Amino acid sequence: ENGGTVIAIVGFGSGALMMHLLDHLIPHIHFTNGCEKNGEMLKVGYLIFWGIAVHNVAEGLAIGAGMIAHPSLGLAIAIAIGIHNIPEGMATAVPLCLGGLKAVKVLILTAVAGLMTVVGAALGSLAFQSSSGFVAAALGFAAGAMFYIVGDELIPHARNYHHYCATIGLVLGFIVGVLL
Asked: What pLDDT is recorded for position 129?
């Protein structure tokens, strides 16, 4: 069990590091829209896209592992994740739209991020049969990527718009996470 914890922690650090590196590469993209605010929003949108795509692979791993454990468990996980992916798709699309991307490109990027769940499910069903450590590493990687995005981009942007609501939302979100 401790080996799984260490693997998950290494995965977490790797996910956060990957997003940190992407964070430093993305500002070097030259946006066609000259508006600095749109460029910042587009950067946030791309970071969210990458984070959600990685996160969706991990969700797919959970579906694949559930299918291996018991098909009804895999189906229940898939339904829950499918419902959960609706607001994720909106969270991916909104900053990309506000950043100035055309609707077709936003739709394609959002669909690609969603399809990563299918990729993860296929990998999960294969990998879980051979190594539970792979699942721990992948879930840790996705968690690290999401934590980086939340801490570096989402919380600071939310606090810029409405400091009090952002703080209350963070506290309530943490409480719900602990209860789950």
From this structure: 74
Q: What is the separation, in whole angstroms, between the first and last Cα of the chain?
A: 21
pTM exceeding the 0.90 threshold for the entire prediction: no
DSSP state of 35: -
Query: What number of other Cβ atoms are within 10 A of residue 53's Cβ?
Result: 22
Domain with 172 in it: 2-179
Distance CA(60)–CA(80), nearest Å, equals: 12
What are the DSSP calls for 85-123, one per residue?
HHHHHHHHHHHHHHTT--HHHHHHHHHHHHHHHHHHHHH
How many residues in total does the chain contain?
Answer: 180
Number of domains in the chain: 1
Phi, psi of 34 (to 5 degrees): -75, -10
HSE, CB side, 13 Å, CA atoms: give it for residue 43. 22
Reported as a single tens digit per residue, the pLDDT across 42-58 is 888 898 898 888 888 87
Instruction: Write the DSSP symbol of residue 1.
Output: -
